[in-house]
Specification:
The structure is a homotrimer. By secondary structure, chain A is mostly helical. The first copy, chain A, has one domain. In chain A, about 80% of the residues lie in helices and about 0% in strands. The first copy, chain A, has ten helices and no strands. In chain A, helix 2 runs antiparallel to helix 4. The longest helix of chain A has 28 residues. Chains in contact: A-B, A-C, B-C. At the A-B interface, helix 2, helix 7 and helix 8 of A face helix 2 of B.
Chain lengths: ~210, ~210, ~210
């Protein structure tokens, strides 16, 4: 299953970059300085996984000590902040990258929770926290009510990711479950975005 | 002391329901969707205990893995959000339920801190965090300055709970201390509410 | 090196007092009650270290269980809130005390992270979190976008503290590194304040 792991890894980095960009954009639009852009961007990219690790009891959190993740988050935030005028035109493309992050973070979060022996509700919650925690931190730091609380088929999909993971895990084992969950959630978000079912997200989130 | 434990347990669930309702109401009034109602409601009900467990070092936090608590919080949030027009009329009744939660959470928080060997200040702080942490998270997520910071005999009572617990614990042991603390704080809040000493709370908090 | 340790200790308490005062002032200006003043003040003084300890996995956090720290934070918050009309005139003096806190917290945070085996990025991050986390919590609880995100040579200096610590540690060992880092950051901030390079900080932060 080397190929599956590679794909999940690539998806994970796409997610980190897309999440980081959404935070850096928010910082730019709120007239924060470049350090604010890096902090907000890195928060969206990393905070979900950090909160998950704290709740599960993994110290220090992987998103801090596994260097490729924070470094990627910092670089992506910097680039998104500096090249805001160019990149922000491609919000539609970023929404698809964000969907890849949502699906992957949700699936990976569910798996880590399951491997640490959490119960069903814990696994679903950790899927949601991993995928949406960063966005909540971003909005709170920017002085806004978190977008995921507003009408929006986003957090619901992250919760769905946890449930799908649990079903597949019991049928096909952990590795297949991660992959299948990520793919299903990503496709679901793609359809939602393409069909325009998620207007609130389009206008508010990115 | 089976009866005492049963009573504390019942009080605990009343508190979870009352706290969850206050979060779901806030979500409804802020025009959040039903998922926002469940998240905000569950946060008020569970976040105080989760923050306490994180600070003490209990992983994963009891409020996540002991299923009856999160399930009760989710159900109560759902009900309070869906039946807002009916239930919100009974805010006075809910204030008494909230007082039961405040007293019980404060007493239980103090006990858990004491059993984990925290010092006097730590026990008092954990009593306050357990009882008021959820409300702070609710207000921050709703984009408001936490109610407990505004003139209001609420957080003070939670702090008082920690002190009372410590006094009774040294005199009569842990179990009696929990029960006595909860009862004293609940009666204190009942009197404050009935005498109208807590106008800020009446108008702002629920 | 007893004298160095003593100096770092004194600097640490000056920092706790200055940070606590900035939180209590914010509470006073936001029309919060005295309990709000103590909570906000203590948060600025202690939250950075608490967040650092949670991320590293030190439970319960030192800032809760090592009594002199929370007691000093509570007393300083109380005094700053009660004597606001007198003390707030001396904001310039407080800015220098705050600079002493920034340098010391940054250096101590870096050292604790290094001693717990965090990598380079983790050490720098913990320096920044220890020194600026309290201020972020203060601003979020007060319903504002954190000051450190606005144009301001403040968080940058905390990050710099982590880097300086790492360089000195590899050359001269841990104890010297803490002292040198604190002194360099404090002097840097003093110069920034005296030269007026940090207007945003002067007007917004305190």
């Amino acid at each position: 299953m080397g190929f599956v792991n590679l794909l999940i890894n690539i998806f994970n980095y796409i997610g980190i970059m897309a999440f980081a960009a959404s935070g850096a954009f928010k910082a730019y639009e709120k007239d924060l300085d470049i350090l604010g852009g890096v902090v907000l961007g890195s928060s969206v990219a990393l905070a979900g996984g950090i909160i998950r690790d704290i709740l599960i009891g993994v110290f220090p959190p992987t998103n801090i000590v596994y260097l490729p993740y924070p470094i990627m988050a910092i670089i992506a935030s910097l680039m998104a902040y500096v090249f805001y005028p160019c990149i922000s035109r491609y919000r539609n493309a970023l929404m698809y990258a964000d969907a890849i992050g949502l699906g992957t973070f949700s699936a990976v979060g569910a798996e880590i929770a399951a491997e640490h022996g959490l119960n069903i509700l814990g696994v679903i919650l950790m899927a949601a926290v991993t995928a949406t925690g960063g966005g909540v931190v971003r909005d709170v730091l920017a002085g806004e009510i978190p977008t995921i609380f507003r009408r929006d088929i986003y957090a619901t999909v992250a919760v769905l990711g946890g449930i799908i993971y649990l079903v597949f895990r019991s049928l096909l084992g952990s590795e297949t479950a991660v992959f299948a969950t990520a793919i299903i959630i990503i496709i679901t978000r793609f359809v939602i975005i393409m069909k325009g079912l998620d207007k609130a997200y389009v206008t508010v989130h990115l």
